[in-house]
Write a structure and sequence with these properties.
The structure holds two protein chains of two kinds. Chain A is of the alpha/beta class. Chain A is built from 24 helices and eight strands. In chain B, 72% of the residues lie in helices and 0% in strands. Classes of the chains: A alpha/beta, B mainly alpha. The structure holds iron/sulfur cluster (2 copies).
């Protein structure tokens, strides 16, 4: 038995709590979770049934934590969980689960298979069965500070560029600011317009905010790969940055998993409450709108038919469901809901680190069929979302399927509709 | 033959029943300790919660309903599953002879349903259970997941209903036989509860609670 396998088993044993025990003992093999998981619905492959992805974990649970399992094991009726079995499960645990949590919404007995896949990944990564490309991203995240290897120098260059563009200054390292904004590498490199949008919104609202030069990265690959020790180091970096500047609230950007990583997993990873509040950018912008601190011209609403793709980690796994809808209705006149939306949205297929797993590309592209169908059903050419990873996945899927659809960021859409109070008054007059 | 049936009936009414109750109680205690003796899920997540939508208790009740958009994906198993659970509970709790027995054991008493209604519900429940079996063997995901235990559990659940129906209708078997087999099958079911997936009769409630609790803290009614 290899040392890494033994360690993996110990790590997995640590992951078993009363909820896991309850879930495994409640499963009736009804198979209904499969109907909620796009990896099953779009492929029909029973290997992708949510609860089946957890077989090694269930095996370990029964063998080590139940009397019946122990008896069976002693009498040789249930084989020992092996290293080979773990290795064989790598694809099911990583490539075919986006940790979207949709299965948890439908299981009749209330099981949460997605949450258990997250736990199983802790053992898989220790055993050495995490996909290489995810391991590389995690290493960059720890050593270079960013999963895509983006340094502060790169960010600075982008900031200078966009400051000239919008004629506003992006505050960096401002002591005592109320809010500290985190950014995902993808936003810095691919979608810097997001930073411009936030700057314009916060400028109008008069928000006291800053970016930290030492803790600007929001991504936390440790969560996706299932390495709590690494995830903890990354959260710690954010905590240090926020404490150095004395901020009260940390804002996670248009990135789904970084919101979950910091807000919901952060306290558990650190073993204590975080010294600041965590809010998603949409929650903050929605609040500013509700407080009347930002203004849109009701006469110049966006008239394009558009729909909203809920990023799983922000909506179902994060509870930010109403805020984007209030904002959309404030700036657009033809917002159409997809049939399954909010807490029942279908994933883009690239969450939970799947977008970073190269070997999963063909599978990801197959399961995109679901989103394609949803977009076609509402008949729009504009999809709004609030996660740069979803945005990349949507753009890729749209291109692969030659669809005539553009994907835009909600924060950017909101910023594009800002008007000053004076201007509104002038227009009305 | 009839003497044997009488003897069997006496045994299942007496020592057999006592043994089944003891195994059920002991088994349940062990299983509950096994499950809830584990550490509780981390509650630090609560520290970032500023809104609550739903709760663990609400999810316990909400999961009796079919989630939006799911019925059309699996109509047979949803309808048959729900009907069979309701029917089973109705027949078990509202059939007068059962009430008399439960009254003997617990001292509680309540009004049952007329036999004609029970008869109808029993037929519907038997039919629903057969549909459940057909789904288990026919639906791809369900067939793939199912192992010997799942079929055994189905049989152990079906037999008390079937034998009870035979005894009630006075068909197929002499009454003494039917009643003896009915009680025997109930006892087998009782013994199986703690050690098989029938444990979901208890843990479905705790699982729903865990699910609802975590999601409600994040602001999602699950
Ligand atoms: S829906 Fe729930 S009970 Fe049914 S197979 Fe999936 S996890 Fe098990
Ligand atoms: S969390 Fe999402 S992707 Fe993973 S098993 Fe559940 S439904 Fe499927």
């Amino acid at each position: 038995m290899s040392a890494s396998f033994t360690r993996a088993i110990n790590v997995l044993r640590e992951q078993v709590d009363a909820s896991v025990a309850s879930f495994f003992s409640a499963c009736t093999h009804c198979g209904l979770c499969s109907e909620a998981c796009l990896f099953y619905t779009e492929t029909g492959d029973p290997n992708y049934i949510p609860i089946y992805k957890l077989e090694p974990f269930r095996h370990l649970y029964e063998q080590d934590f139940t009397l019946a399992g122990r008896v069976k094991h002693i009498f040789g009726l249930s084989p020992e969980l092996t290293d080979v079995a773990l290795a064989q499960w790598s694809e099911l645990v990583y490539d075919s689960c986006t940790l979207c949590g949709r299965c948890a919404m439908v299981c009749p007995v209330g099981n949460n298979p997605g949450a258990m896949v997250r736990k199983l990944r802790e053992g898989m990564s220790v055993a050495g069965y995490a996909p290489d490309s995810l391991v590389d991203a995690t290493q960059r995240n720890v050593h270079l500070g960013s999963a895509m290897g983006v340094s502060y120098k790169t960010l600075k260059a982008q900031l200078i560029h966009l400051e000239t563009d919008i004629g506003l200054t992006v505050p960096v390292d401002v002591q005592g600011a109320d809010y500290m904004l985190l950014l995902s590498s993808m936003e810095i490199v691919q979608f810097p317009e997001f930073i411009s949008a936030v700057t314009r919104i916060f400028h109008q609202a008069g928000v006291s905010w800053t970016i930290s030069s030492t803790a600007f990265e929001a991504s936390n690959s440790g969560i996706q790969i299932g390495a709590s020790d690494i995830a903890q180091q990354i959260v710690e970096r954010t905590i240090k940055g926020a404490q150095a500047l004395g901020v009260k609230t940390v804002i996670t950007p248009e990135c789904g998993h970084s919101y979950t990583a910091l807000r919901w997993e952060g306290p558990t990873l650190m073993g204590k409450p975080l010294p600041f509040k965590v809010r998603h950018i949409l929650e903050v912008v929605d609040q500013l709108h509700q407080q009347g601190r930002i203004h849109f011209d009701p006469n110049t609403k966006d008239t394009r038919p558009l729909t909203y793709h809920d990023p799983c980690q922000i909506a179902r796994q994060g509870g930010v469901i109403e805020a984007p809808r209030r904002l959309l209705n404030a700036v657009a006149s033809d917002f159409r809901e997809m049939a399954a939306h909010g807490k029942m949205n279908w994933c883009c297929g690239g969450g939970g680190g799947v977008s970073a797993i190269e070997r999963a590309d063909p599978l990801r592209s197959t399961v995109f069929k679901k989103k394609k169908q949803q977009i076609e059903e509402v008949g729009v050419h504009t999809v709004v979302s609030a996660c740069s990873n979803c945005r990349m996945m949507l753009e890729q899927g749209i291109e692969d399927n030659s669809m005539d659809v553009e994907v835009i960021s909600l924060t950017e859409l909101v910023a594009d509709h800002l008007v000053s109070v004076e201007q509104t008054v002038r227009d009305v007059a | 033959m009839n003497a044997f049936a009488t003897e069997l009936l006496l045994w299942v009414k007496g020592p057999g029943f006592t043994i089944a109750v003891i195994i059920l109680m002991l088994g349940l205690s062990i299983r509950l300790m096994e499950i809830f003796g584990m550490k509780a899920p981390d509650k630090l997540v609560y520290s970032q919660s500023n809104r609550q939508s739903g709760s663990g208790v609400q999810t316990i009740f909400r999961r009796f309903l079919i989630p939006k958009g799911m019925l059309s994906r699996a109509p047979g198993i949803y309808l048959a599953g729900i009907l069979f659970h309701i029917g089973y509970a109705v027949v078990f709790f509202l059939f007068e002879p059962h009430i008399a027995l439960l009254n003997n054991l617990t001292g509680l008493n309540w009004q049952g349903l007329p036999n004609s209604v029970i008869d109808f519900v029993a037929v519907m429940t038997l039919f629903s259970m057969i549909v459940v079996l057909v789904c288990r063997m026919g639906r791809r995901a369900m067939r793939f997941l199912s192992d010997l235990e799942d079929y055994l559990v189905w049989l152990l659940t079906f037999l008390p209903l079937l034998t009870g129906f035979v005894a009630f209708r006075h068909v197929l078997l002499p009454y003494t036989w039917a009643l003896a087999l009915h009680l025997l099958s109930v006892e087998l079911l009782m013994i199986a509860i703690p050690f098989t997936k029938l444990m979901h009769t208890v843990t479905a409630f705790s699982s729903r609670w865990y699910n609802g609790d975590i999601y409600s803290r994040k602001g999602v009614m699950s």
